[in-house]
Amino acid sequence: MTKQQTRELFLQKRDAFDATCDVQDRLTSSLVKFLKSESGVWAGYRAMRSEADPKEAIECSSHLKWVYPRVDGEQLEFLEIGENSWKMNEWGVEEPLENNRVIEKSEINGYLVPGIAFHRSGHRVGYGKGYYDRELSKRTSKKVGVCYSVQIADQSFETSAHDIPVEYIATEEGILEVQRRD
Predict the structure, then answer these.
(1) Rounded (5°) CA angle 114-163-67
(2) Boundaries of every domain in the chain
(3) CATH homologous superfamily of domain 3-107+128-177?
(4) Which residue of 66, 68, 89, 154 has the smallest Cβ count within 10 Å?
(5) Average pLDDT, 10 consecutive residues per value, the chain (182 residues)
(6) End-to-end Cα distance, the chain
């Protein structure tokens, strides 16, 4: 499947998926268990549309320092947040206001990564702008994809040299350590 076909198919699947409170609670539980043994600074994200939402898991993982992405040209920068520190960007995603402190990317120990589709090899399909791939290509930090189980592709899909796989995938069914095929 091409990336565009994968994107369209899995957006339909995700939009049709009934993410009940039970499903969200199980996703939160999976993430909290995984994050319990982690430390330092982690990058979260604010869910948009029907994305799997890590907000509750982040709130339950207060032993970690959380930062959030903001689009800056073609790159992501990561900022601390305070009360009422959010604005909606042009794509309908909440991101930190510019007046929040920017964190050096070398300080980030791990990333929660949104996506439309994930494969068991760790590859993902996002919205096609490449922000996360550009960011993650420069990092050795842990990379955890966050999605619902319906977003895990059984068949492989088209990937490019610049696509950066995640090491773990968190769903309501648990944490999947990816099977790398380098």
Answers:
(1) 40
(2) 3-107+128-177
(3) NagB/RpiA/CoA transferase-like (3.40.50.10420)
(4) 154
(5) 92 93 96 98 95 96 96 93 85 87 94 96 92 91 97 90 93 90 52
(6) 20
